[in-house]
Write a structure and sequence with these properties.
The strands form two sheets. The protein has a four-stranded mixed β-sheet. The chain is of the alpha+beta class. Strand 7 and strand 8 (88-91) form a beta hairpin. The protein is 20% helix and 45% strand. The longest helix has 19 residues, at 2-20.
């Protein structure tokens, strides 16, 4: 019983700390977009369907861009909510 309580607390703490260091990107275009999140030494690529969103861990500052998009990287900090519209990354409003 005590092990179960400690395991539950550990999982809840991990879930809370992980979500605090993430960015959320929503696709507001009518077509799928491929978005790259640059975390320095690593890049993560997401295909986002129209109206869908993705959450990506970002413990510091990440560069976010749309493949074949218009515009340059958008620098995002943890907790940022971004949107893709007209193949550009901007803060989500």
């Amino acid at each position: 019983m005590i092990k179960t309580v400690f395991a539950t607390i550990a999982i809840a703490t991990l879930a809370l700390s992980t979500s605090a260091f993430a960015i959320t990107i929503v696709n507001r275009d009518s077509t799928e977009n491929t978005v790259t999140v640059d975390k320095g030494a690593t890049e993560v690529v997401h295909k986002i369907a129209p109206g869908a969103n993705v959450t990506e861990p970002c413990p510091d500052v990440c560069g976010v861009r749309v493949a074949d998009g218009t515009g340059s990287d958008f620098l995002a900090k943890d907790g940022a909510k971004l949107s893709v519209k007209d193949r550009k990354v901007t803060p989500d409003k």
